[in-house]
């Protein structure tokens, strides 16, 4: 008889983007390891990306409980005069207004909605689930954040019903990069920290996605913090016969907010275009996803607009095809205090696409270690123009030789199915 696990997640299809991938894929494979997933998710989430193709990964006949959620973001946008989805993250250069109401709404968001604006869903969810689980019991609860209000739902259920609980952190809480962009008071930050520590210490198991996050959380929980990275689903890459385009195509998939922008990159590419006619004839830059206005302006400033294609958001299956048809996959890492610990799901899909990876970020971070281990690419220091220029030139030289350096190493340990096996070890241990 299979055990049952309740998964409390804000993101679920048809929501698109990176936030939905991790637990959609875990849910896809849990049955293979003797666990039946039960999903609890909002009926009307405030999301800007929709990807209906992801529904194909939902296990048949799975129990999905959807309940309405109240979120004040629509009111914020009305007061601030912003459209839904404007800008790319808190560091966006677009849509910014310096008016009183805009500043006030941001202050309210930072200091009154703790840990986030989904806080209004906590109490009604606990009331509903406490009643529901009495007649539909589960063996464990999993919460995944951000948004970290999902952890508070699980925390209260743990305290009320004593059900074993695994807290999964896809991103940091108080150390996440956008905290620096919020007008948060010391008192509010202390409340964030207090809630974070409560979740970390009370949960039966804590799972994080990078070694840097693991080290950070172990300061408050010396034992019991496990690392389960993001990964790739081998079924998404069933057609490995797709050949890359002949041009020197550099592709970045995913959003590029202002704090992920690399001016040194555009500068280096611009100089190579003006000094190398062959390079200029072969270069193509593909930016797939939402791009901040600051990024587009810099690309234009450096004379690269004619080389660049702004594709916008595409569904997941299309993004896989684009990866495989590219010569070089570009990975831009946020220039933030937690940059060393950023290890997104995208990098693992890059690995599975089996195209050389050029990362721009910390050369002593988790991404750099992963690329060195798998021999799948190189990392250039985002603070060094010279290093970025040298790495691009190296990639160009290797491209002309057919990328002989690129070893087809085994990356199966990062498959979603194998990672689900690691997750189940934690569930069984609880």
What does the model show?
- It is a single chain.
- Helix content is 39%, strand content 16%.
- With 430 residues, it is α/β, with parallel strands linked by helices.
- The protein has two domains: 3-72 and 113-231 and 416-429, Rossmann fold (3-Layer(aba) Sandwich); 234-400, 3-Layer(aba) Sandwich (Rossmann fold), CATH 3.40.50.
- The strands form two sheets. Strands 3-2-1-4-5-6-7 form a seven-stranded parallel sheet, sandwiched between helices. A six-stranded parallel sheet has the order 10-9-8-11-12-13, sandwiched between helices.
- Helix 1 (18-30) crosses helix 15, helix 4 crosses helix 5 and helix 8 (263-275) packs across helix 14.
- The longest helix is centred in the middle third of the chain and has 17 residues, at 186-202.
């Amino acid at each position: 008889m299979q055990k049952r696990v309740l998964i409390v997640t804000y993101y679920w299809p048809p929501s698109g983007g990176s936030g939905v991938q991790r637990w959609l894929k875990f849910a896809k494979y849990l049955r293979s390891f003797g666990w039946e997933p039960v999903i609890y998710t909002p009926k009307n989430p405030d999301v800007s990306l929709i990807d209906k193709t992801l529904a194909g990964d939902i296990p048949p006949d799975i129990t999905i409980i959807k309940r309405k959620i109240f979120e004040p973001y629509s009111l914020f946008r009305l007061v601030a005069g912003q459209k839904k989805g404007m800008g790319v993250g808190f560091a966006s250069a677009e849509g910014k207004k310096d008016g009183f109401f805009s500043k006030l709404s941001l202050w309210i968001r930072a200091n009154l909605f703790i840990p986030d604006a989904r806080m209004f869903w906590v109490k009604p969810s606990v009331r509903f689930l406490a009643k529901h689980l009495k007649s539909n019991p589960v063996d464990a609860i999993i919460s995944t954040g951000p948004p970290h209000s999902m952890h508070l739902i699980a925390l209260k259920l743990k305290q009320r019903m004593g059900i074993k609980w695994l807290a999964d952190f896809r991103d940091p809480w108080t150390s996440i990069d956008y905290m620096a962009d919020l007008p948060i008071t010391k008192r509010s930050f202390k409340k964030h920290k207090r809630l974070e520590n409560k979740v970390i210490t009370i949960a039966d198991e804590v799972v994080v996605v990078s070694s840097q996050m693991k080290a950070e959380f172990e300061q408050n929980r010396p034992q019991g913090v496990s690392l389960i990275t993001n990964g790739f689903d081998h079924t998404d890459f069933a057609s490995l016969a797709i050949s890359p385009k002949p041009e020197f195509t550099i592709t970045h998939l995913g959003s590029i907010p202002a704090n992920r922008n690399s001016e040194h990159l555009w500068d280096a590419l611009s100089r190579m275009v003006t000094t190398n006619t062959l390079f200029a004839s072969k270069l193509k830059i593909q930016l797939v996803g939402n791009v901040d206005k600051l990024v587009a302006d810099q690309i234009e400033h450096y004379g690269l607009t004619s080389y660049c294609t702004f594709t916008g958001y595409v569904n997941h299956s299309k993004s896989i095809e684009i990866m495989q048809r590219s010569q070089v996959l570009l990975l831009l890492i946020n220039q933030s205090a937690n940059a060393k610990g950023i290890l997104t799901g995208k990098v693992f899909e890059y690995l599975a696409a089996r195209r050389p990876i050029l990362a721009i970020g910390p050369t002593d971070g988790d991404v750099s270690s992963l690329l060195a281990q798998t021999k799948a690419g190189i990392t250039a220091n985002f603070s060094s123009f010279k290093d970025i220029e040298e790495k691009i030139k190296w990639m160009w030289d290797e491209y002309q030789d057919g990328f002989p350096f690129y070893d087809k190493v085994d990356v199966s340990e990062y498959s979603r199915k194998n990672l689900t096996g690691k997750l189940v070890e934690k569930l069984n241990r609880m």
